[in-house]
Specification:
Blueprint: H1 2-12, E1 21-23, H2 24-32, E2 43-47, H3 51-60, E3 64-70, E4 73-77, E5 89-92, E6 99-103, H4 118-129, E7 134-139, E8 149-155, E9 161-164, E10 167-173, H5 174-177, E11 178-181, E12 184-187, H6 189-205, H7 211-225, H8 231-244, H9 249-254
Parallel strand pairs: 2-8
Antiparallel strand pairs: 1-2, 3-4, 3-5, 4-7, 5-8, 6-7, 9-10, 11-12
Helix pairs in contact: 2-6, 6-7, 6-8
InterPro entries: Aminoglyc_AdlTrfase
């Protein structure tokens, strides 16, 4: 499946006017250069300044584009916005019937300021006051076997170092963050694993019912990857975990081996 998705990504984004790369679990496949496990989605990263170009590109390709509004709420975009905001995008091919959009009954919601800059907060406040239809994207949890869904995640690239979102003291240079396989950029395994361990930690603390499934995937990705990482990568990940998630002892101990 990995080779099929890799070919489809290369062909689909061949003429894209923005920088993009693979992150999430699929990035582990790119690092290992083979299919490691089934994936329910494809995560891509890009830069906030390119978000408008991405929306235009996907809409022109005939895809539906939804914008994350916080709290699991989304709304569908029919055009790009001028604001440079970092809200994630969910892009669904018109032939993909695995996702359904269920309208939300009210907009009397509190806007979470967690991890949002001032421009994003203002954008959401204006959006919530508008008559835009909001709701939930529901996925039937099928394994993704072709390029018919992607999620774009955004970072600012105006700094030489990428700061980890849960601990700005944990940094890695963009030159080390972005690797390449057959002309496709992907996020380095140490950063992917840090994000995954962090998500598992938050799910556990919030007693989310998805924790056990996600933790199993996280453990699988780590086991597949850590023995193939070089000493510098393992040392960086170990230091990042000690600083941010010292309770993640099962991973920290293995990075010494």
């Amino acid at each position: 499946m990995y080779n099929i998705i890799k070919t489809q990504l290369s062909q689909f984004f061949a003429n894209a006017n923005f920088t993009w790369g693979v992150c999430g679990g699929m990035a582990i496949d790119f690092f290992v250069d083979q299919h490691t496990r089934d994936h329910k989605d494809i995560d891509l990263f890009s830069y906030t300044e390119k978000r408008k170009d991405i929306i235009d590109f996907m809409l022109k390709k005939g895809w539906r584009v939804f914008e994350a509004c916080g709290g699991g709420i989304q709304h569908e975009l029919t055009k790009s916005s001028l604001e440079e905001i970092d809200l994630s995008l969910y892009c669904i091919h018109s032939s993909n019937n695995d996702y359904t959009f269920t309208p939300y009954s009210t907009k009397n919601l509190e806007i979470s300021r967690f991890r949002k800059n001032d421009a994003t907060i203002k954008y959401l406040e204006d959006l919530y006051r508008s008559d835009v239809k909001m709701g939930y994207l529901v996925h039937d949890e099928k394994i993704q076997t072709k390029l018919d869904y992607v999620e774009f995640l955004f970072s600012d690239n105006n700094q030489p170092l990428l700061s980890y979102i849960d601990n700005v003291d944990v940094k890695l240079s963009w030159d080390n963050v972005i690797l390449n396989r057959d002309g496709i950029s992907y996020m380095c395994p140490e950063m992917v694993l840090l994000y995954k361990i962090g998500i598992a930690d938050r799910l556990k603390k919030s007693q989310d019912k998805a924790y056990h499934i996600y933790e199993e995937e996280c453990r699988s990705d780590f086991t597949t990857t850590y023995c193939l990482m070089n000493e510098v990568q393992r040392k960086w990940l170990k230091s990042a975990l000690i600083l941010t998630y010292p309770e993640a002892e099962e991973y920290i101990i293995k990075l010494d081996n």
